[in-house]
Write a structure and sequence with these properties.
Structural class: alpha+beta
Number of helices: 3
Largest sheet: 4 strands, antiparallel
Radius of gyration: 28 Å
Shape: elongated
Length: about 150
């Protein structure tokens, strides 16, 4: 009888654990359902942070403005074919920028382009800077992303 009692007690304990787990899951589901509309709004805002592919035509103009602000002369070209977005991954296209100016201005130009730019999401993959008296020359290769 003691054995049967212990078996039933263990079974009740296991059932209670299962019920508690299910109650927790139901509670979490309710929280997630309640948060879904807000998450959807944030998802839409994040999506709007990336420009559409055809909006990348404005990227060279953005570079012109940043280069003028930092007193850097630059040439720009897109490089290769665009990689289309895949699922949650954004699309991108490569680019090359050649820039000339003082060391500080060139560094600040690329810093603003990669870190401070709010219109385009940019990743600089390589940056080579060399002195060309009295100025500095920089060549950067990178990607600009789109939705």
């Amino acid at each position: 009888m003691d054995r049967e009692f212990l078996f039933r007690a263990g079974s009740v304990y296991a059932d209670r654990s299962i019920i508690q787990g299910q109650a927790w899951s139901v509670g979490m589901l309710a929280v997630l359902k309640q948060a879904a509309p807000e998450a959807k709004r944030y998802e839409e805002r994040l999506r709007l942070l990336l420009p559409a592919k055809d909006e990348l035509l404005d990227f060279p103009r953005r570079l012109d403005g940043v280069s003028r602000a930092h007193q850097v002369s630059q040439t720009f070209s897109f490089r290769g074919n665009a990689v289309s977005p895949q699922g949650n991954e954004p699309g991108y296209i490569g680019f090359t920028i050649d820039a000339v100016g003082s060391y500080t201005n060139v560094v600040n130009f690329f810093r603003e382009l990669e870190v401070k730019s709010t219109r385009f999401l940019v990743s600089i993959d390589s940056l080579d800077i060399s002195r060309s008296d009295p100025q500095y020359r920089a060549r950067a290769e990178g990607k600009v992303f789109f939705r």
